[in-house]
Amino acid sequence: MEVIILRTREQATVLTARLIARALRQKPTLVLGLATGRTMERLYCLLGNMHRDERLDFSLCRTFNLDEYIGLPPESPYSYRYYMNEHLFKRVNIDLRNTHLPDGMAADIDAACRQYETQIVECGGIDIQLLGIGSDGHIGFNEPLSALRSRTRQKALTPDTIRQNASLCGGEENVPRRAVTMGVGTILDAKRCLMLVTGSTKAHILAKAVEGPITSMVTASALQLHPSCRVIVDAEAAAFLQGREYYNWIFRNEPEWSEHQDLTR
Ligand code: F6R
Question: Which domain holds residue 166?
């Protein structure tokens, strides 16, 4: 795992956008795993700007989102399909037929989950999986005690997650109680993982996930097992990391980060 700390939320988000843009330029048919949530809103705005200003080309890109609520149709403003259309897909030249989210309206949810896993494999697997972290340590909707080898399936949300997502759904009463999510095992199968974490509210859980023991109580801690996982954070989120000095040294000295030193100002 590699942790990169930048001073501001904007700098951390810009770096994450650059890493995705570079991967897309290197491989136009990139299979990109996507997340929703407040943290990603600015990131998707930046990717939209890169498409507009730098001709970042999404025309051959394929995407798979981590999760979707059960029981919300795609046209619901609280559904993740709606979120993705608004925040990213409308802003870039992606072919909507190449964008995939779990089907939270399927008559047979379990069959749809198996189908989702098959679709990912048929696309050659996820090249980069973008992740945020929930206040309870979840990735996707893999709530505490999710098996670390779990696959795409339905999960009940914790009261914590329902509260966390209330502002995105116009109040707690509108947050569905169940969702379909890629499993921790599905996420760990991605070739690379890229987690973006910002803000002081994430500082405690981030320290547990990155430097604590691997435990299903904090499913993001499973990323420690991944051979290629980058965690990009701002100073507020990094506040409780023990290894801050070392992580800063890596960013300042490793050649691969030299072109991003403008972000340290
Ligand atoms: C949603 C997802 C979640 C969020 C997490 C953080 O697709 O994957 O794990 O990344 O709940 O959400 P925000 O960014 O709203 O704090």
Answer: 2-264
Report whether pLDDT(96) > 90: yes
From atom 4 of ligand 1, which residue's Cα is the shortest distance away?
A: 132
CA of 209 from ligand 1 middle (Å) equals: 14
Strand arrangement of the beta sheet that strand 128-131 belongs to: 2-6, 229-234, 192-197, 128-131, 31-34, 62-65, 99-100
Residues 59 and 38: their CA atoms lie apart, in Å, by: 25
pLDDT in tens, 175-217: 999 999 999 999 999 999 999 999 999 999 999 999 999 999 9
For ligand 1, atom 10, name the residue with the nearest CA. 132
Q: Using pLDDT thresholds of 50, 70 and 90, give the confidence band for residue 146.
A: very high
Distance from the CA of 35 to the center of ligand 1, in angstroms?
7
Provide the pLDDT for residue 40: 98
Per DSSP, the three-state class of 84 is helix
Catalytic residues: 67, 136, 138, 143
User: How many domains, the chain?
Assistant: 1
Strands (E), 157-260: 178-181, 192-197, 229-234
Q: What atom in ligand 1 is closest to the CA of residue 138?
A: 9
Separation CA 195–CA 28 (nearest Å): 21
First vs last C-alpha separation in the chain: 24
What are the tens digits of pLDDT across the range 60-83? 999 999 999 999 999 999 999 999
CATH of the domain at 185: 3.40.50.1360
